[in-house]
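User: My instructor asked us to take a sequence, write out its structure as tokens, and then describe one feature of it. I'm not sure where to start. Here is the sequence I was given:
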Amino acid sequence: MKILGIGNAIVDVICKVDDKFIYQNNLTKSTMKLVDENEFKKLLSTLKIEETISGGSVANSMVCLSQLGSKVGFIGKVNDDDLGIKYEEGLKKENVQYLYTKKKEAIPTGTCLILITPDSERTMVTFLGTAGRINENDINKNAVKNSEILFLEGYLWDEGEPKKAFEKAINNSNKVAMSLSDLFCVERHKSHFLELVKNKLDITFANEQEIMSLINGKRFDDVINFAKKVNKLIVITRGEKGAIAINKNEVVECSAKKNLQIKDLTGAGDLFAGGFLHGLINNRSTRESLEKGTEMSSKVIQIIGARLN
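Assistant: Let's start with the prediction itself. The structure tokens for your sequence are:
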């Protein structure tokens, strides 16, 4: 297997809302908030559902890689319930090998409300459900060893069981990549993430906000200096400013595509990572990999949802 992803197995529930809804429910636009089952159900009861799709950050990247012709797999925890069955079917349909055997759990399959405002920004409210209970027994050691690259998401990192699952996977990997996932994730786990980026990861994906927060940077030059110093591959998306990859002393930039009909920014980072990794495992140059990532993210933001048909 080329790439094995491990992440939150989450079913996306997409709804359109206005800015007032975000404000009234004390949400911060374009970030992700974790809630319990009751709060989730309360919010959902007031909304009209546009679409329900299997999601999860790394799972979206794996689907992208599969669509580009790469052999990939995914490990993520679901319950043996309706959403869990739907989730597995969604991956199988996309030829992503699902390396987890679902069973009856006390907690339901994780769900994420994706609230799209008229400016195409997406604000997420996540009930992790059983996805957040992943533990080291859920990690297929041989699958990790037999993949060229292991791809993890910052969303999954939490003290206790998920952290042990992460460590087991990293300790058995050939090469490891991770996405920092979300500004709130970075702020919650800053010291751990910094340790991972410096010492455990071969490749780090982040957006400008996340990486600036991680290193407490004042200017973007601080990020470039940091990346050169850690001597790893760090890939950063910068919205309209395009994307940049710093690989040891090499700094490569790629501009953003212009004149796009943006509908929904959900999955932009996930598909960027998928496109970039596709370039990497096919021995493309850093520039070509950045261009592939940019092409895939440009496509997904012009549709609703985080997966291309």
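For the description part of your assignment, you could build on this observation: The chain has twelve helices and 14 strands. Try explaining in your own words what that tells you about the chain.
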